[in-house]
Design brief:
alpha+beta, Rossmann fold, Gyrase A, domain 2, 2 domains, eight-stranded mixed β-sheet, four-stranded antiparallel β-sheet, 16 strands, elongated, binds adenosine-5'-triphosphate, nucleotide-binding, ATP binding
């Protein structure tokens, strides 16, 4: 292999832990929005899931963690094929689900469960509890008589802690408290004896006081019924309590993935670090840790930042992380909201309206009648700009009628093995090929990570 060839790192490969129950490779789910009614054009593509790979082993709880809009629900639904993925592979017990039509999926549906966040959305208010929980048994033809269905419903209601079960059968979901309703949703999902369950924020809508009890119930049921979970949450404290392994999603991609304790004790991606710094930890050694919350909001998934998608919010971003023209314009605008009024007015007059600048990926051209003064200002103020945008600038060039600021390459970080987990971040063993593509060298990454 030549030096320039990439070293393949298969994200999610798990060594000697046997066959995974679910195996996902390079999964993409893109939504096309808008566009003209006839013909092409005007469309935006939301890359809700954009190249995700992971394995879930029998008996495991795999957590999908990320802020709102990171793609958790879309990923959860895509692996169950409730949303049709755009490309990639989803293998359940070794069988690729991607080419299966809904008709071929139907026999598998009873093995693949989904628990929603909102009990009201998954319970039919017109059915009694007995009818609602028993309904899937009839759909999947798992019972031959009403009496058999009734018996199984009673058993399941008891299992989820709704007892005495008989007293619930003829009541309606609206008669129950939030916690009881969520137990009912769990019962309805588990009545078909699934083996693999995606739980999408199952406790987020509940009062704090009942959350822990519902989570404990889910763990108990997992043990008793040999279940495997993909658990979706935006809450790291919940993920820590429940998950064996975690994938941290950001704008449709995993930034870090590995065993929970590694991610919690020693996070290696700046995004994981900032998420963690926001949660209270009982560990006294870490009480004095500095809170480094990500700046601003998660960007629009239809226009993700170039390079590393997290770079505009990253406290550790440096020159190769994907800076481009728009980042510089945003940083200057941001500066003007922070400096005093006179400074902002003076600088605005010097630079002119930022809307007049020509903004491209690799450069920004500021039109100006005083290009030398503008260039001098950019060179002196640039390094102080918020974030680290100026670190990527390779030149500030004066030309007739304006100044051009040029940016170096900012490739997307590859996935690398770093200290026992997968990380996609240039901080770990950056190797940028001559054509600008980032190639992670696992050995180099490991060495860089341990020396850090
Ligand atoms: N059917 C759809 N059509 C177009 N865009 C969609 C669709 N479903 C989700 N999205 C977009 O995909 C991105 C990911 O959404 P998703 O709901 O999967 O994120 P999430 O992490 O689960 O967020 P939340 O915690 O708020 O539910 C968002 O930008 C969302 O607007």
């Amino acid at each position: 292999m030549s030096e320039d060839e990439p070293t393949a790192v298969v994200s999610g490969s798990d060594g000697d832990r046997g066959e995974p129950l679910l195996s996902v490779r390079d999964l993409k789910t893109h939504f096309v929005q808008g566009g003209k009614l006839f013909g092409r054009g005007g469309e935006t593509v939301v890359k809700a899931v954009d190249g995700v790979s992971f394995d879930v082993h029998p008996g495991e709880v795999f957590g999908l963690v990320g802020e709102s809009g990171s793609g958790k629900s879309t990923l959860g639904r895509s692996i169950l094929k409730l949303v049709q993925p755009t490309s990639g592979e989803v293998r359940y017990r070794g069988r690729d689900l991607m080419p299966l039509r809904e008709r071929e999926m139907r026999p598998l549906r009873r093995e693949l469960g989904l628990i929603f966040q909102d009990p009201n959305a998954s319970l039919n208010p017109a059915m009694t509890i007995g009818q609602g929980v028993g309904h899937p048994l009839h759909i999947h033809e798992m019972v031959s008589s009403r009496a058999e269905a009734r018996k199984r419903v009673i058993d399941m209601l008891e299992r989820v802690g709704l007892h005495p079960a008989e007293s619930f059968l003829d009541r309606y979901p609206e008669d129950l408290s939030g916690g009881q309703k969520q137990r009912l949703v769990i019962a309805r999902t588990l009545i078909t004896e699934p083996k693999f369950v995606v739980a999408d924020e199952p406790v987020a809508a509940l009062d704090m006081s009942v959350r822990a009890r519902v989570l404990e119930l889910m763990l108990e049921l997992k043990r008793d019924l040999d279940l495997t979970y993909v658990f979706i949450t935006h809450d790291l404290a919940t993920a820590r309590f429940l998950c064996d392994r975690i994938g941290i999603l950001y704008l449709g991609e995993f930034v870090e993935q590995g065993p929970s304790e590694l991610l919690f004790d020693d996070p290696r991606h700046p995004y994981t670090r900032s998420l963690l710094s926001a949660i209270p930890l009982p560990d006294t050694r870490r009480r004095d840790r500095v809170k480094v919350l990500p700046r601003g909001e998660i960007p629009d998934a239809s226009r993700p930042p170039a390079g590393c998608r997290f770079h505009p919010r990253c406290p550790d971003a440096f020159e190769v992380c994907g800076w481009q023209g728009q980042d510089l314009v945003d940083a200057i605008e941001d500066r003007w909201t922070k400096v005093d009024r006179d400074t902002a007015d003076r600088e605005l007059e010097l630079l002119g309206r930022l809307g007049d600048a020509e903004v491209a990926t690799t450069f920004v051209r500021f039109p100006s009648r005083e290009p030398d003064t503008v260039a001098e200002w950019l060179r002196s103020v640039g390094p102080e700009l918020p974030a680290n945008v100026f670190s990527a600038v390779t030149g500030v060039e004066v030309e007739p009628g304006g100044v051009v600021v040029r940016f170096g390459p900012g490739p997307e970080p590859g996935v690398q093995k770093v200290a026992g987990r997968d990380v996609a971040c240039h901080l770990h063993g950056v190797v940028v090929r001559r054509d600008g593509v980032h190639v992670g060298d696992p050995a180099e990454a490991e060495a860089a990570a341990t020396s850090r």
